[in-house]
Amino acid sequence: MILEINNYLKRSTASSKLAVFRICFGLMMLYSMLRFWSKGWIDSIYIAPKFHFKYFGFEWAQSLGEYTYLLFVVCILCAVLITIGLWYRLGMILFFFSFTYIELIEKTTYLNHYYFISILSFLLVFLPANKCFSMDVFLRKKQYKEIPQWTVDAIKLLMVIVYFYAGLAKINSDWLLKALPLKIWMPSKYDIPIIGETLLQQEWVHYAMSWGGMFYDLSIPFLLLYRKTRFFGFLMVVFFHIFTAILFPIGMFPYIMIVSALVFFDGNTHDKIIKFLNKMIKPIGSLWSTVTYDSISQYHYKRLKGAQWILCVFFIVQLALPFRYILYPSELFWAEEGYRFSWRVMLVEKIGYTNFKVVNKTTGASFYVRNGHFLTDLQIKQMSFQPDMILEYAHYLGDHFKNQGHRNIGIYAESFVSLNGRSNQQFIDPEVDLLLEKKSFKHKHWIKPFKDEIKGF
């Protein structure tokens, strides 16, 4: 066993694989940052709000006000450096920290693909993606033909985890037996040409899409890994994600997954892509004729064991984290305890209404809070059905009103939520003073039990 592992770690593959991945990743990130800026989301999400929801343990990640634009400038500059492969390691580290800090500022913006970008950025810090077709190569006059096979397989493994766990999450009774929430979403897509007023209104189509999505996620990693089915698998990736992009406004995620799937192809394919790119950037491309290959031809890590141990721990966390929900007695889709960071992509449709009552425990006098005075529309929508945000906001309200001179007060939530089209159910125990509840990873006993059952992973 140990011998097999050692032999595997000595295998090499074409350096062009990571070079192509680096270029695609850099371009995607550059476009994403510019798109975010152009739509005015920096101000509306990170600067304008009076209050920001935080991840537990990361309350220190505060908004920088107008200086938040500088974080995006750093991301944009780093994306350029990553694309051209100039000072790659530094650019990758700065991109990881700046992008992740931006995501930590406001929890209501959580999306699976933002999380994917953060952990992929962390992974890329340790991979030699600048050893081929990069400015680092040009400046050092040294290019490596080959890199360790495991560096490419690390990206493949992360992709397999994302897809396979997303497929496992779809094996639940709402998704497969009731076609929910697709049955709710699809009829509203009537404005899509050709299929909107016909196919998307049919119930059998909703079931076909639910089952098809589950089988796609579970099978696509293996179709891409196996050489004989790889091209077919890639066509499936392109079709699935383009179709998803048409149906749902989920930003760059579909395109990121499409270009990421290229990493599964062999070195010859990536060599052809590099040659094509070389022709595209002429006469700049003529500079590459001065670059000579390293005499050893294969890149070797200076701190190999350190990088391997870090990535080993990284993947153990990625494999285990999505299953933390089993530690909680509550219904996952209802209470969302252990829901984030588990690749449960678009599985629920939740609509909530949460009002807060401030009670003077001495006199019994009370009044209701107008959430719009403190939160943006996006924050109100997300907070209304996510318990950790409800608790965090309650504590913010408590601090606010105490600073105004109110004494011996309690904050109580009147909350009702609808899950996947079901009737509204009381979500938060209205008798519990949320100011007495502490933020933690413990089970939130003040969440009312779900009056139904969703079976599955």
- Fraction of residues in H or I helices: 40-55%
Note the total helix count: 18
Uncertain spans: none
How many structural domains can be distinguished in the coordinates? 3
Q: How would you explain this protein's 3D organization?
A:
- The chain is an alpha+beta fold.
- It has three domains: 13-147 and 287-300, no CATH class; 149-265 and 316-335, no CATH class; 349-436, no CATH class.
- Helices cover 51% and strands 7% of the residues.
- The chain contains 18 helices and six strands.
- The strands form two sheets. The chain has a four-stranded antiparallel beta sheet with strand order 4-3-5-6. A two-stranded antiparallel sheet has the order 1-2.
- A hairpin with a 5-residue loop joins strand 5 (409-419) and strand 6 (425-426).
- Helix 2 packs across helix 14.
- The longest helix has 23 residues, at 16-38.
- The protein is globular and about 80 Å long.
- The two termini are 32 Å apart.
- The mean pLDDT is 92.
SSE topology sketch:
Blueprint: H1 2-9, E1 12-14, H2 16-38, H3 41-47, H4 68-84, H5 88-105, H6 112-125, H7 135-140, E2 146-148, H8 149-169, H9 173-177, H10 182-185, H11 203-225, H12 227-247, H13 253-260, H14 267-280, H15 304-320, H16 332-335, E3 350-360, E4 366-368, H17 377-383, H18 387-403, E5 409-419, E6 425-426
Antiparallel strand pairs: 1-2, 3-4, 3-5, 5-6
Helix pairs in contact: 2-4, 2-13, 2-14, 4-5, 5-6, 6-8, 8-11, 11-12, 12-13
